[in-house]
Design goal:
The protein has 566 residues and is α/β, with parallel strands linked by helices. The protein has two domains: 94-323 and 423-502, Alpha-Beta Barrel (TIM Barrel), CATH 3.20.20; 332-419, no CATH class. Helix content is 37%, strand content 18%. It has 19 helices and 22 strands. Strand 3 and strand 4 (67-71) form a beta hairpin.
Length: 566
C-alpha cells in the first residue's frame, strides 16, 4: 500500500471514531488533543441563548479558568475537555431569586436539589431570616437545635463568621444573602411586640450597615412572621434608608398576601418611594380563593410603581401551594411573642385556649377545609407518621379535632414542624410567571434524597421549580418564548442583585452555564414523593468547573460567596 492510500485509510478510521464520539450526547466530556490547548473546556455546537432575550445561535464556547474566553468556532484540538452540546440548549446558569439555603450547605455542600435544576447562584437570607447575627437571647436554643438536627456546631455570630464556615467547607454553587430584619430586631431588642427604644433602633441601624458593608445584598423582611411583623412601617423606613445609603436593596415578604394584599403593596411601594431603595417582592402571590380576583389591581399597582421610577421586581415559584412553619399560619402573632418556650407555654395555657381556637377557626374559613394543609416535616420519630398527611387526616387518626391535633403536635415538636398549604390559583400563577416584572425563585432550600437533608416530605419546589417552568409552563403551556423566560432566570436577576459578570454568556464573564434538553426538561418531584431530581438538565458548570456531567454530580465545589458589589 502506497503512502497516499495509507493516509486516506487513517483519515477514514479516525473520522469514524470522532463521529461515534459525537453521538454520545450532551454532557459527555471528551478529551481534546494535548497540544496547543487554549481552553480548559469547550462546549461544542449548542443552541446558545445569551440570557439577554436574543434568539439562539449555534456556536462553541471556550472556557479557561473560571471565565468564558471565546464564543465562536473552536477547533477540537484547542480544548483539554469537550462537552458535545449539539441539539441542546446552552444558557447562563439560573439565578434563584428567592431561596432559604444556608446552614444546609454546611450539612451537604453539594447542593444537590438545586444544582441539578441548573441553579448556579442562590439569593438567600429572605423573609426576614438569616443565620446571622445570632442574638444572645437565642444562642443556646439555636446551638442545641443545630446540633440536634444536623450535628453542626454553632461557632459563628455574624455574617463574617458564617461566610468563613462556608468558604472552609466549600460549596457547589454561588451563594449570596440578605440579612434578615426579623433577626436584627431580635438581636437588638428581643422578640416582643413593642416599638424600639432609641438605643435599640440605633443598634438595628448599625447592624444593617455592618452586615451590608460585610457583604449582605441588603435587608429582607418577613412581615407576616414574628418578630419582624411587630415593626411598624416607620421602623422599616428607617432601616431601609440605612440599607439604601449603603448600596443595599430591600427584599420583602409583605405584611399580607391575601385579604390585605393591596394595602401591603401600597406599604411596600411607599417604603421604596420614601427611601429610594430597590425592592424585590418575595414570592408574589394572591392567596385564598376569595382574593384571586385581585390580580388585576395588584399588577396595576406594580406597574404604576415602576412607571413612577421605583425600582421594583418580584419573584415566584411554579406551584399553587406555599410552605412555611406549621405555627406561622395557624396561630396569632401575639401568641408568637418571645422565645419558643414562651410560645409553647401559651399553647399549653387553658386560659388562652378559647382565643387561640377563635383564630384557628378563622384560618379554616380562609382555606375552606383542613385537607388543604399537609404536614411536610417534623423533628421526632414519634410523629414521622404524619408527614405527607393532611391536618384533617392527622386529626382523624388521633381522635382529636384539628385544633387539638395541631396544638399538641407543635408542643411535642417544640415548634419544629412545617406544612404545605394550597391557596393559589393556576390561572393567576401562569399570568404572574409570564409577567416581565417577575423572575423565578424556589423559596426552598438545597436538599438531597439521602442523608440528613433527605428527611420529611418537603415542598417539591426545592427540587423542581426551574425545570417545571421550562417543561410545563414554557414547552407545554407556552406562556412565553423560551428566550424571554431564560432572560428572566439569568440576566435580569443578575442585574437586579448586582452580580457582576454573571447572568449573560459573553467573553470575560464567569462561566456559570447550564446545558439542557428543551424537549425533555421537566420536574419529577411530587407532593407524595418530593425527593426526586428533575430530568433534562444534563450539564451544569459553575465558575468554569463541571458540577453536573451526564446528569450526575461530579463533587466539584467551586462555588463562590457573592458579596454586595460596591
Amino acid at each position: 500500500m502506497n503512502k497516499k492510500i495509507a493516509r486516506r485509510e487513517f483519515i477514514k478510521k479516525t473520522s469514524r471514531i470522532v463521529a461515534v464520539s459525537g453521538l454520545a450526547g450532551c454532557g459527555l466530556v471528551l478529551k481534546g488533543c494535548t497540544t496547543k490547548q487554549e481552553f480548559d473546556l469547550v462546549i461544542r455546537g449548542g443552541r446558545v441563548f445569551d440570557g439577554l432575550g436574543n434568539e439562539a445561535f449555534e456556536d462553541d464556547i471556550g472556557i479557561f479558568g473560571d471565565s468564558i474566553k471565546k464564543i465562536g468556532k473552536i477547533p477540537h484540538s484547542k480544548g483539554k475537555s469537550i462537552i458535545d452540546a449539539r441539539n441542546k440548549v446552552v444558557s447562563p446558569g439560573f439565578i434563584d431569586a428567592h431561596d432559604h439555603t444556608d446552614v444546609g450547605l454546611l450539612v451537604n455542600p453539594k447542593a444537590e436539589s438545586h444544582i441539578r435544576q441548573g441553579i448556579t447562584t442562590v439569593v438567600s437570607g429572605n423573609c426576614g431570616s438569616s443565620p446571622f447575627p445570632v442574638a444572645d437571647e437565642i444562642f443556646e436554643e439555636t446551638f442545641v437545635s443545630l446540633e440536634d438536627a444536623y450535628n453542626i456546631e454553632l461557632d459563628w455570630r455574624d455574617i463574617t463568621g458564617f461566610f468563613s464556615r462556608l468558604k472552609e467547607r466549600g460549596i457547589a454553587l454561588n451563594y449570596s444573602t440578605f440579612v434578615g430584619q426579623g433577626i436584627i430586631r431580635g438581636a437588638a431588642m428581643g422578640f416582643n411586640d413593642r416599638p424600639p427604644k432609641g438605643k435599640e433602633l440605633e443598634l438595628m441601624k448599625m447592624l444593617v450597615e455592618e452586615n451590608i458593608q460585610n457583604g449582605a445584598l441588603g435587608l429582607s423582611s418577613g412581615l407576616e412572621y414574628a418578630p419582624g411583623s411587630y415593626a411598624l412601617p416607620d421602623e422599616i423606613v428607617v432601616l431601609c434608608k440605612v440599607a439604601a445609603d449603603n448600596g443595599g436593596m430591600y427584599a420583602t415578604h409583605m405584611r399580607d398576601e391575601g385579604d390585605f394584599l393591596i394595602e401591603s403593596l401600597d406599604e411596600t411601594c411607599d417604603i421604596a418611594s420614601q427611601t429610594g431603595i430597590r425592592v424585590q417582592i418575595s414570592h408574589f402571590k394572591i392567596a385564598y380563593a376569595s382574593n384571586w380576583d385581585k390580580i388585576d389591581e395588584a399588577i396595576s399597582r406594580l406597574e404604576a410603581a415602576r412607571d413612577e421610577g421605583i425600582s421594583i421586581y418580584c419573584d415566584r415559584y411554579s406551584y399553587i401551594a406555599g410552605s412555611t412553619g406549621l405555627s406561622s399560619f395557624n396561630f396569632p402573632l401575639w401568641a408568637k411573642q418571645g422565645t419558643t418556650s414562651e410560645f409553647l407555654a401559651r399553647l399549653k395555657d387553658p386560659n388562652l385556649e378559647s382565643k387561640l381556637r377563635e383564630h384557628f377557626k378563622k384560618r379554616e374559613k380562609k382555606l375552606g377545609s383542613w385537607d388543604k394543609v399537609i404536614i411536610s416535616s417534623v423533628f421526632t420519630e414519634k410523629n414521622r407518621k404524619f408527614e405527607g398527611k393532611t391536618v384533617k387526616q392527622g386529626a382523624e387518626e388521633t381522635g382529636k379535632d384539628e385544633f387539638e391535633f395541631v396544638r399538641d403536635l407543635l408542643i411535642e415538636e417544640k415548634d419544629r414542624a412545617s406544612m404545605i398549604i394550597f391557596m393559589m390559583s393556576e390561572k393567576n400563577l401562569k399570568r404572574i410567571l409570564a409577567h416581565p416584572m417577575v423572575g423565578v425563585g424556589c423559596d426552598g432550600s438545597a436538599m438531597a434524597p439521602y442523608g440528613l437533608l433527605g428527611k420529611g416530605k418537603p415542598h417539591p419546589r426545592s427540587y423542581g421549580t426551574f425545570p417545571r417552568v421550562l417543561g410545563k409552563y414554557i414547552r407545554e403551556e407556552k406562556i412565553l418564548p423560551l428566550k424571554d423566560m431564560l432572560k428572566k432566570m439569568t440576566s435580569i436577576p443578575a442585574r437586579n442583585f448586582g452580580f457582576i459578570k454573571r447572568g449573560v454568556l459573553q467573553v470575560d464573564n464567569f462561566a456559570d452555564i447550564v446545558i439542557f434538553d428543551e424537549d425533555k426538561v421537566i420536574d419529577k418531584a411530587t407532593w407524595k414523593n418530593p425527593h426526586l431530581y428533575p430530568e433534562g438538565i444534563e450539564s451544569v458548570i459553575v465558575n468554569g468547573g463541571v458540577v453536573i456531567q451526564n446528569g450526575e454530580h461530579t463533587g466539584n465545589l467551586g462555588g463562590k460567596i457573592l458579596r454586595r458589589s460596591p
